[in-house]
C-alpha cells in the first residue's frame, strides 16, 4: 500500500519537487516500508517522536522538523537534523545556530511564513523576516543556512483561496531572493503543499511537498 502510494505520487511529480514523507503518529514499520521503496526524506512535527524514530531507523535518512519548534528542544536534534522547516522567530534561529556550532555543523533552515487566514498558525510576517535578515547578528551566524521559505495554507475547500495563499508565499520567496539571497544558491526552496493541496502548490512553484496521509493513510 505505502509503496504503491509513493509510486503513484512520484509518477506525476516534476523532477524539481522533493517529497517529504510525513510519518507523524505512524509506526516504525510504516517508515521502513517507505524507506525500502527508496524514500529518504521524512518529516515529523514533534521533537520527541522524531528522535525516537531516528534512533532506530537507518542513518542515511534525512530528517525534517516540520512542526513548531520550542527553543529548549533544539539541542536534542542539532546533531543530525537535515532541515528545520519551521523557523518562526529570531530567538529560535539564534538557538539553532548556537547548538549547531556545538556539533560543528551547519543546520539548514526555512523561514516559516504565516499565509493562512487562520490566526492559529505559526509563522513570520514579511517585516519580521526583514528584521532578522538585516540584523548584524544574523549576518555573523556561521552555523545556519537559510534554504528558503515554508508555509501552510488554510484548511478550506476553496481552491482559489489556497492558490492565493501559495502565491503569496512564492511572492515572499521571490522578494527575499532578490533582496537578500541574490547570489546565494542555497536559498532555493519553497516548502508548500500537503496531501490535500500539493498539486495546487506545485502549480504555484513549490519545490518541497510535505505529504503524510496520502502515503501512510489517514491519522487517528
Ligand atoms: C501533518 C503535517 C503535514 C502533512 O499532512 P497531510 O495532510 O497528512 O499530508 C504537512 N506539514 C505539516 C507542518 C504537518 O504538520
Description:
- The protein is α/β, with parallel strands linked by helices and about 220 residues long.
- The protein has one domain (about 1-215): TIM Barrel, CATH 3.20.20.10.
- Helices cover about 40% and strands about 20% of the residues.
- The chain contains ten helices and eight strands.
- It has helices spanning about 1-10, 30-35, 45-55, 75, 90-100, 125-135, 135-140, 160-180, 200-205, 215, and strands at about 20, 40-45, 60-65, 85, 105-115, 145-150, 190, 210.
- It has an eight-stranded parallel β-sheet with strand order 7-6-5-4-3-2-1-8.
- Helix 1 crosses helix 2 (about 30-35).
- The protein is globular and about 50 Å long.
- The model has no long low-confidence stretch (mean pLDDT about 95).
- Pyridoxal-5'-phosphate binds near residues 194, 195, 210 and 212.
Amino acid at each position: 500500500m505505502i509503496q504503491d502510494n509513493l509510486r503513484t505520487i512520484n509518477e506525476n511529480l516534476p523532477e524539481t519537487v522533493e517529497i517529504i514523507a510525513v510519518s507523524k503518529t505512524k509506526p516504525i514499520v510504516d517508515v521502513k516500508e517507505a524507506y525500502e521503496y527508496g524514500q529518504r526524506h521524512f518529516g515529523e512535527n514533534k521533537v520527541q517522536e522524531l528522535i525516537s524514530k531516528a534512533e532506530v531507523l537507518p542513518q542515511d535518512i534525512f530528517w525534517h522538523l516540520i512542526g513548531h519548534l520550542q527553543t529548549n528542544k533544539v539541542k536534542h536534534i542539532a546533531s543530525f537534523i537535515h532541515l528545520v522547516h519551521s523557523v518562526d522567530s529570531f530567538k529560535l534561529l539564534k538557538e539553532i545556530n548556537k547548538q549547531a556550532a556545538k556539533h560543528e555543523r551547519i543546520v539548514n533552515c526555512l523561514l516559516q511564513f504565516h499565509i493562512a487566514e487562520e490566526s492559529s498558525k505559526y509563522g513570520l510576517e514579511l517585516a519580521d523576516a526583514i528584521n532578522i535578515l538585516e540584523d548584524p547578528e544574523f549576518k555573523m551566524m556561521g552555523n545556519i543556512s537559510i534554504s528558503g521559505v515554508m508555509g501552510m495554507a488554510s484548511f478550506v475547500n476553496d481552491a482559489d483561496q489556497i492558490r492565493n495563499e501559495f502565491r503569496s508565499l512564492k511572492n515572499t520567496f521571490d522578494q527575499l531572493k532578490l533582496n537578500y539571497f541574490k547570489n546565494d544558491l542555497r536559498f532555493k526552496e519553497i516548502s508548500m503543499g500537503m496531501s490535500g493541496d500539493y498539486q495546487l502548490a506545485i502549480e504555484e512553484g513549490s519545490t518541497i511537498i510535505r505529504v503524510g496521509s496520502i502515503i501512510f493513510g489517514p491519522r487517528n
